[in-house]
Design goal:
This protein is an alpha/beta fold and 220 residues long. It has one domain: 3-Layer(aba) Sandwich (Rossmann fold). 35% of the residues lie in helices and 20% in strands. It is built from 7 helices and 8 strands, in the order βαααβαβαββαβαββ. The chain has an 8-stranded mixed beta sheet. The protein starts with a strand and ends in a 6-residue tail after the last strand. The mean pLDDT is 93.
Length: 220
């Protein structure tokens, strides 16, 4: 069962550090860490193709704001797992934003070794409350409050990655694009789940899928 929320959330235009700070109430230290994170991305991108170079020009809207917007949707959550985190989106941004919050921790999960080398350097350099796991998401035994992902996999496959975390009490917040309706319909053929969909604040085409319950897979 899933429901699409009415468009009561309006897109917020974020173009730079100042407008990001205004949208999120981020302090000077968080802004400085995000600037350093962007520098890491630019530096490593010269050595290996981690991210589309053109997206660095829209870092504050496409990456920082798109990631940070999910924090208020789970204000009490202290432990997060970012599945297929890639270069750390949204996980690195979440860790930066909540760096000084007691008990907050993000597990950054990715199966590609070169990405994990990058993530470890960022986590160490910025002294973030995060752990990098060079592993497949479904092979880990982590207990977290929220599992998240962005641009990781279609929802039907993503739910399979997330199922072990749901068994240990997690819920999910997945950042999705404009094809979310077809992804939900496809996932419903093989999964028994409850979810709602809300508009993204960073992109009018984007959607955020909150999965509250995930049952065992079933045959279509």
């Amino acid at each position: 069962m899933f429901a699409v929320a009415p468009p009561d959330r309006m897109t917020v235009d974020v173009t730079d550090a100042a407008s990001f700070a205004a949208a999120t109430n981020a302090g000077p230290q968080a802004i400085a860490d995000l600037e350093r994170y962007r520098s890491y991305l630019a530096e490593w991108n010269e050595k290996m193709n981690l991210i589309g170079p053109a997206t660095l020009d829209t870092f504050w809207s496409r990456h920082a704001w798109d990631s940070a917007q999910i924090l208020p949707l789970a204000p009490d959550a202290l432990t997060w797992a970012d599945l297929g985190t890639g270069v750390g989106l949204p996980g690195i941004v979440l860790a930066i934003m909540q760096k000084d919050r007691p008990g907050f921790h993000v597990h950054l999960v990715d199966s590609l070794t070169k990405r994990c080398r990058f993530l470890n350097e960022v986590v160490s350099g910025l002294q973030l409350p995060a752990t990098v796991h060079n592993s497949r998401a479904e092979d880990l035994s982590l207990t977290v409050d929220i599992v998240t992902a962005r641009a990781c996999a279609p929802l039907s496959r993503l739910l399979g990655y997330a199922q072990p975390y749901f068994k240990r009490g997690a819920q999910a917040l997945f950042l999705k694009g404009q094809e979310v309706a077809s992804e939900l319909e496809d996932a419903a053929k093989t999964w028994d789940f409850e979810a709602d969909v809300s508009p993204s604040l960073s992109d009018a085409r984007g959607r955020i899928v909150r999965v509250r319950r995930l049952g065992r897979g079933r045959k279509s």
